[in-house]
Amino acid sequence: MKKKCILPVVLLLLLSVVVAPAFTDVNAYAGSLEDAISATPQGTDPGQLDPNAKPGFLGIPGAPSPNLIAGFFWAIWVGWIFSTVGAFGGIMSGVGHITVFGLADYGKGFKQTSPMLNKLITDSIRVSNQWMVGLSGAVSSWNYYKMGRLVLPLGLMLAIGSISGSFLIPVITAGKISLKAYLGYFGLVVFVIGGFLFYETTPKGQAGKKEAKAAAKAFEDSHMKGGSKVDEAEQGVKVKSWGFKRITFTFYGVEFGFNPIVPIIGGFLIAALASFLGVGGGFLFVPFLTSVAGLPMFLVAGTSALTVLVGMIISIFTYMVVKGVPVFWPLIGVELIGIFVGSMIGPRTSKYIPDIWLKRLFVVLAVYVGLRYTTKGFLGYSIVPPF
């Protein structure tokens, strides 16, 4: 009973921090936004603001007005994909905010005429992505924990390392990076990671993953091949020992172990890069958990979600409270409802998808998103649709 209370208490404490920015005095954000708007040339030409135009994103005159219905359904997709593979929540949130709603192209229009407004829009996109991933991480973590598919000590070690990285990067980079550079590096990192995960789906890449393959087979036999019905929580993750040098646990009868120092270091490096890009970091935690920790994909999504949640909470708090970055609450509010729906569905459908196909789904998304934003950021146009 005591063990079952650990994660709920952790989630409540973390969520109390992430909710704080929503109740912070909006006037704290208004200053920087008003300064950026007032410093922007007025007019109807590109790179100018028409004071008579209808307010849109962030209340900026003439800015795009995101369709809230589209935002809701897009958020369901984001919640499902993140809770299914433990990654691409932030990236898919970025696709919506940057491409579907046209916020990136709009922000780039002020690069020369109003750098302050350009960078404020960039930071707002980053933290908006993180709100969506943060909620999905909370919902997914709780669902996977109840199903016995979350490695709590491993997730906590990664989270400990991610705290400093999630705090440090927003302080250093907020308001100091151009939107074009953000798009280019965003895509480049994703593309490289996709290639790495593709290697893991090959026979050679799978050869050294004996424990993961055995655990995945046992799980698939129980849920996909007509085996006798099993108690997921009973067969799920069971921590056998805690130590400074090694922590061990079992999953469907297969034993795994890891040195806690390794995920702490990995968590710091991954969270720092994820916070810089304005995404959740799952696309980096997934290869870490499959390659370094040697886990099957059935354990990856829940463990990644918990780790990403901690990083998102720290990063959101830093952006909004420390740096005063605003978000567009009408859109975020609707998206969070959709995120909740998608994140409830994902853990329940992922157990029917074979381990190798979960990785292939990751690879397909990585290749598309990597190509889209690498070329958009560095060449100025995308070689894949939408152009």
Biggest sheet layout: 3 strands, antiparallel
Mean pLDDT: 81
Structural class: mainly alpha
Order of helices and strands: HHHHHHHHHHHEEEHHHHH
Q: Kindly report how far apart the N and C termini lie.
A: 54 Å
Strand order of the largest sheet: 1-2-3
Model description:
This protein is mostly helical. The chain has one domain (68-378). The chain has 16 helices and three strands. The protein has helices at residues 6-19, 27-38, 68-85, 89-100, 103-108, 115-146, 152-173, 179-200, 203-206, 210-223, 232-235, 261-277, 282-292, 297-322, 329-349, 355-378; strands spanning 238-241, 247-251, 254-258. A three-stranded antiparallel β-sheet has the order 1-2-3. Strand 1 (238-241) and strand 2 (247-251) form a beta hairpin. Residues 1-22 form the signal peptide. It is a multi-pass membrane protein. It is found in: Cell membrane; Membrane. This is Probable membrane transporter protein.
